[in-house]
Design brief:
alpha+beta; Ribosomal Protein S5, domain 2; four-stranded mixed sheet
Length: about 200
């Protein structure tokens, strides 16, 4: 079996609106060092890293006094690019991931395919409200940016739930575990596709 490449990447992005440095290690231990001015997003990204067993470092700043939208979307871009670069060689990975997560009254199901085609189905209805300085409708924008840059097929479905905090946190936890399942090394060094390439 060939040697698996190191699955650790650093992504930097600087625009007139945001400045981000992000480091992702798919083969980590669930450690997170996250500094953003959107504290709820920092919280759910820590949950993503913890439950996915990824090491994730983020230092981000931006024009959140105008609207956190720019920063949240750009964080999705950066995390998506890191996932893509860490999984560019699809050889030896499981490829598919799935997880259902309950959190109090909420239950969310995530399935994904690292098959190289970008698609998002975000079937998550919740109140259009703010949790601290973050609008709940920005969660879809985050994942749309992530999917476009990671080239993954991602389905996020809310089965039940009322509390927006519970719903969103369940989404990030389920995504972390599903991604961990999809990126795990199977011991088979082949590309997981009948085409022989992804």
């Amino acid at each position: 079996m060939g040697k698996i490449m190191e699955r650790k990447k650093i992504i930097s992005r600087k625009t007139k609106e945001t400045e981000i440095e992000l480091e992702l290690n798919l083969d980590g231990k669930g450690s997170a060092e996250i500094e953003t001015p959107v504290s709820f997003l920092s919280h759910v990204l820590e949950s993503f890293a913890k439950h996915g067993n990824f090491d994730l470092k983020i230092k981000a700043s931006g024009d959140v006094s105008v609207d956190p939208h720019h920063l949240i979307e750009d964080l999705g871009i950066c995390l998506g690019q890191a996932i893509f670069n860490c999984t560019e060689d699809k050889r030896g990975i499981a490829r598919f991931g799935f997880m259902a997560i309950p959190m109090d009254e909420a239950e969310v199901v995530v399935s994904l395919d690292l098959g190289g085609r970008a698609y998002l189905r975000f079937n998550v209805d919740m109140l259009n409200e703010k949790i601290e300085n973050m609008s709940t409708n920005l969660v879809e924008d985050f994942f749309r940016a992530l999917v476009s840059n990671a080239s993954i097929n991602l389905h996020i479905n809310k089965n039940v739930g009322i509390n927006s905090h519970h719903i969103i946190e369940a989404v990030f936890k389920a995504f972390g575990i599903a991604l961990k399942n999809a990126t795990r090394i199977t011991g088979d060094n082949s590309v997981p596709s009948t085409k022989g390439a992804i």
